């Protein structure tokens, strides 16, 4: 199981790259000045057995986060292990925002009727659409541009539009035999009309044509509508992760 988790974790780091990455043993410290997303600003432990000098290392990580003006945040997957979890419990750290990692073998995806769609080449146009569908603050535009521009594997920028109005957006990162879906969003007034489903199917069809064999994504456990959609498409849970912060953070 841990080998599977490591595979998705590594793919996630490549697909949604932080601006600065530091290693402390097998802890991956990711920081991004231009975007506040937790997965871009978190400590990611990758070995349950790496438990040496935990308090000292947390202190080092805290100083790095302070320098970026970010709250110290640990992203806890099954790779974090029980020893570290117990240490954080005893220190009174809060636990929040659980998410699921889900997968779908593309040979099982119903893509025959999916519309053929060419990803956008204009990053600026896509960013504008994504900010609208995600209802994000326009101040995040430079940071999001930086993240998307830094993606090393092939990234398909998908947008469903009605004239100049963005209805749904997503990023599909084709990385070997994996196709990761990121930033999947539908504009509030356009929800429950099948736009998200249609765009996901188009992106998966695009990825399968590029020889991807498995789709995967991350979704917050509390996002009932998204979970229902993904499960209806055939996605199944692989593992979960959550975030932790120290008292007062």
UniProtKB/TrEMBL annotation:
Presence of keyword Acyltransferase: yes
Recorded GO MF terms: acyltransferase activity, transferring groups other than amino-acyl groups
Alphabetized UniProt keyword annotations: Acyltransferase, Transferase
InterPro entries: Acyl_CoA_acyltransferase (IPR016181), GNAT_dom (IPR000182), Rv0428c-like_C (IPR056935), YpeA/RimI_acetyltransf (IPR050680)
Residue span(s) of domain N-acetyltransferase: 118-249
Listed Gene3D superfamilies: 3.40.630.30
Name assigned to this protein: GNAT family N-acetyltransferase
């Amino acid at each position: 199981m841990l080998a599977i988790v490591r595979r998705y974790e590594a793919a996630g780091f490549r697909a949604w790259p932080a601006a600065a990455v530091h290693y402390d043993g097998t802890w991956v410290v990711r920081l991004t000045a231009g975007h506040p997303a937790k997965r871009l600003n978190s400590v990611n432990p990758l070995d349950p057995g790496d438990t040496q000098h935990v308090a000292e290392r947390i202190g080092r990580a805290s100083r790095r986060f302070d320098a970026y003006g970010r709250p110290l945040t640990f992203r806890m997957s099954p790779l974090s292990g029980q020893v570290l979890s117990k240490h954080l419990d005893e220190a009174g750290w809060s636990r929040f925002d659980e998410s699921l990692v889900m997968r779908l073998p593309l040979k099982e995806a119903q893509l025959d009727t999916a519309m053929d769609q060419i990803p956008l080449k204009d990053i600026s146009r896509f960013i504008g659409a994504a900010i609208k569908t995600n209802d994000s603050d326009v101040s995040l535009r430079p940071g999001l541009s930086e993240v998307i521009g830094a993606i090393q594997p092939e990234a398909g920028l998908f947008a469903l539009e009605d004239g100049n109005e963005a209805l749904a957006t997503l990023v599909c990162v084709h990385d070997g035999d994996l196709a990761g879906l990121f930033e999947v969003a539908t504009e509030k007034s356009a929800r429950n009309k099948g736009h998200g489903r249609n765009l996901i199917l188009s992106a998966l069809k695009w990825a399968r044509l590029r020889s991807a064999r498995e789709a995967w994504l991350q979704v917050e456990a509390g996002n009932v509508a998204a979970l229902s959609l993904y499960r209806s498409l055939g996605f199944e849970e692989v593992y979960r992760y959550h975030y932790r912060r120290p008292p007062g953070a």
